[in-house]
Amino acid sequence: MTRPNMFIVHVSDAPESARFYGDLFAMEPVFEAPRFIAFELGGGVQLALWSGAAEDLSGPRTSEVCLNLDGAPASVDARHEEWTAKGVTIVEEPHDAVFGRTFVAADPDGNLIRVAPLD
């Protein structure tokens, strides 16, 4: 069976967004072109940042990048404090949802990044 192996996030400036995501997740790009930068997430799966379709950035955001953390709820609250100290935009403060403690941040283009407990 074929499975998705790359998730593409549309951004207005790929190098700027790569610095943001690289700092946020402590990772380095594995591929870099002027408007397309990819990070290896493990297991052959990549997160790519693409500024090749800037006209599409005005539409609604319907997906999230999600970081699942072990040790929740304390680890989720700690990551919120860490990202807040870095100046990351928080669009949904930490709260308890049906799946556990969570919060949502946004990248410079408004793409959503959820932090939630590891199942």
Automatic annotation (TrEMBL):
Q: Which residues form the VOC domain?
A: 3-118
Output the InterPro entries linked to this UniProt entry.
Answer: Glyas_Bleomycin-R_OHBP_Dase, Glyas_Fos-R_dOase_dom, Glyoxalase/dOase/EhpR, VOC_core
Which SUPFAM superfamilies does UniProt cross-reference here?
Glyoxalase/Bleomycin resistance protein/Dihydroxybiphenyl dioxygenase
Kindly give the Pfam families that the UniProt entry links to this protein: Glyoxalase
**Which domain of life does this protein belong to?**
Bacteria
Name this protein carries in UniProt = Glyoxalase
Q: Which organism is it from?
A: Streptomyces albidoflavus
